Write the structure tokens for this entry.
Amino acid sequence: MAKVILHPIGTPVEEAIDEKAYATNIKRMEELNEVVSQRRDEVRAGWGPKYVERVHAKGKLTTWERIDILKDPGATVFPINTFVNYGLTFGDPPRTSPSAGVITAFVRVHGRLTVVIANDNTVASGSWWPLTPEKIERAQEVGLRLRVPVIYLVDCSGLNLPEQSNTFPGRVGAGYIFKMNSLLSASGVPQIAGVLGDCIAGGGYMPIISDKLFMTEQAYMVIAGAALVKGGKAQNITSLSIGGANVHVHLSNCADERVPDDQTMIRRIRQEVEKLPDSAVTYYRHNFSPADPRFSPRELLGLLPADHRVVYDIRQIIARLVDNSLFWELMPHSGEEMVTGVARINGLYVGIIANNQQLTPHPELKDRTRAGGLLYREGIAKISQFSRSCNSDGIPILWLQDISGFDIGLEAEKHGLLGFGSNLLYTNSTNTVPMITVLLRKASGAGYYAETGLPYEPIVQISTPITRLAVMEGRTLSIGAFRTKLDDNFNILTKDPKERAEVEAGMKAVEDRIEADMNPYKAARQMDTDEIVPVHELRDYLMTLVEMCYQGYGYRRIKNPRIWSMHDLNVLTDFSG
């Protein structure tokens, strides 16, 4: 009978890296982490103390106060898409929209992980800004694909009307939220909504489609607010009188229950979650308990170089992410530029695919080596097959990306990398198993796509403070842009000092612009990545995400580890004996 045997991976930090390099890496990472912390606090503050006081003056809690009561005592909240719209302003006078005016997060309630979608009532009364709908839909997508309960805390004054052209009409604009509500409902995913304030126009459909709907005495749901009704029908009314809990609980039957205040609302939502089936996680752990890595995840701050040009050992990174620092590496002697294998995170099996940055032997020319961080024929075939095996066995896949792209040149074309790459793209496009992508440093070119970048629909894509997401590096792109002005060694051809200075300035401008575009905050701002997470926090996020992959049951295949196709793969590729 096949057994899953995991082996120790990694070494103590003093054996893994030079002491000086380790200290240099930590110093730079801590500087970047301080920026993350400051910006998280800035976003969490919404529009600031003045608007917090306004919320409290109405007898309401702020959105973060509601979430803090909702979560289990001592539990950590894991936000996603924190930095949407970060640094942008809208309108005249210009106003910011911290986190697009809505908080989306993974929150543990009575031991079950849930997706929480909550309007930030300190930002324009929770109204919808550009990218607010897309952010809500992204969170709904996680709930739908993993069959995780979705909780809505609604306190929203509707579309931010001056920006309506950017939120109302598009294919994934505001209206798509309600389609996602419907798809969640059709798939049997529990949806619980609490209306704790304004709920105007299209926003009303979101709670209505939910399975359970509560309203506080201050809440109202209306197709049109009182001001619009007064203008259209000359009636002297208030929004509360036409759409409050008294109307929707007792007359229209559009809501289930009225509660006196926010605290009671949150308590009732917790009670409803408690009625849901227990998590299947313990069942799928197969008698294993979660275990810390043998090496502290905090050591990742010094082991992952902030300089994207510096090589490191990816196995040392894996050793600080997985339970007990144990790993079953498969196909270690082929496609060595890629590392593939199985580990446990939070006591649950996960397949890991990672880029090896180190030099590896050339498979055909025995006296040559090849640079790491690239995709060659053997590595592409290896990760395609491993990805298919994970999908067959129902094992979630964790991609640890640090990729410069595909190999290029005559050898690459002769080896048919286009065909092998297309096979990998097909595999990852048709996989049904949950996939999680972490962009450790470089996420470049078609390699980013091939290793399940965001267009290939991972459950969540995480960046780090040193992630560089782009087609190519700034220097490389500047050479391409000015290729006609350069010789074969990329030196400027002209001898004219003025023209040389113009080419140098032009290349520098292109390089600087691309470098700015590669900033992870820009990617997060426009939802090209889901969250920026300091590297020492990665394990905590991954423990949560992997648990969410296993929490539900009956909606996807999860094979008994005894009958994994992974065992066949191991036997067929084991040339040790």
